[in-house]
Amino acid sequence: MTSFDTQLFVIGGGSGGVRAARIAASLGAHVTIAESFRYGGTCVIRGCVPKKLLVYASHYAQEFRDAAGFGWSVPPATFSWPKLIAAMDAEIGKLSAMYEKNLLNSGVQVLQGAARVIDAHTVEVNDQRIRTEHILVATGGTPFLPALPGIEHAITSNEVFNLPEQPRRVLIVGGGYIAVEFAGIFHGLGSEVTLAYRGEQILRGFDDDLRAHLHDEMAQNGVRILLHSEVTQIEKSGDGSLQVGLRSGSEGTATQHSFDTVLYATGRLPNTQGMGLAEAGVALDKTGGIIVDAYGHSNVPSIHAVGDVTNRIALTPVAIREGAALAQTLFGTAPTTADLTTVPSAVFSQPQIGTVGLTEAQALQAVPQIDIYRTNFRALGRGLAGGKERTLVKLIVDSASQRVLGAHMVGDDAAEIIQSLAVAIRMGATKADFDATVALHPTSAEEFVTLKDKTTRSRSDQASA
After folding, report:
1. CATH homologous superfamily for 151-266?
2. Can you count the helices (H) and strands (E) in the chain?
3. Does residue 408 have an active-site annotation?
């Protein structure tokens, strides 16, 4: 390290960067990390962790209502948005401090400031230039806002956690997991929620049965969903409300609607702007994502990237795996890649989604013929509560090998259930393995091992559809 100040300089103190820094330090490397905001990154500070806390809070109104069906007399409950946000902020502060403390305890040099790449081996932070053997960019993503009149009046998932008060009427623009999760949050807390999406169905990229099922459940619960709809403009009125033009279809006429808050959840872009990467010769994709190989290496041998900034699988556990693998590759005994062949995911919508493996459409691209097993039922506890919510369970199986290619669920505890199934599917479990497993009764999870009725589809069916 005679010509370098440090062996690894990590830009970004989120999950991927922190994991890479700690693993590299444990392998004996001299590591420096810089973060421009708060340690913990998007997930901890303004992403999955605070959002999940709001999801928990939003469930209570329904649970209070359900309690009556089980003999409980619950007095009228009141909710305080400021109290919830204060409690959430305190918890996030603890987690952020823990991230920084763990870095220091691992022997990592921790800096606060925005870092910029000067060349293949030089980083500048706080007007100080640091020479480094390797640079890791782990700066995550940032919300996308389209260019339209009045867009400055809208907020994104970055600002939603800082609202001083709960909006009475919310427009959520987008149809992805962030959009449907916040729709459930605000609706559960008592806001009037409208979700506008320009596509034909919410949750593009998920299994079509799940998309349709969640749409129906959300609409039944009272969320107003407008498909084939897009915002044309936003104007702020004298009373502080937002007048929004909404157009249905490409030829439709925009109609005016009034909201208190407009939340845009229309995707995220890699956070690479102004970092000097292109000037340093790093190849970027059309959205600014750093192009890397399976090991996290860019086209510049000393510059690497992990996590959302690479514009691949935007999930925190994926960034963590990639960060650990890169550290092992650079400072361990052998090059290591993150195994991302079977990545489970969840949408903390209401009801919840859990999924792992291939969708029906993806499976038909991978194999000639598939068997589909599914069931749609009302879970045991919903009956006494008087609820109409229904659970969907679906397995996708390769007809030839009988290997389970995908498992999907919409319903209570879907994420917790899918996590366990991901182990079996990654190991190559067959439908016979599922059938031979004794059911745990009475649970919703048992449906995965008791599915009998199947529908068989082939690529020719898809081609003629």
Report:
1. FAD/NAD(P)-binding domain (3.50.50.60)
2. 12, 22
3. no
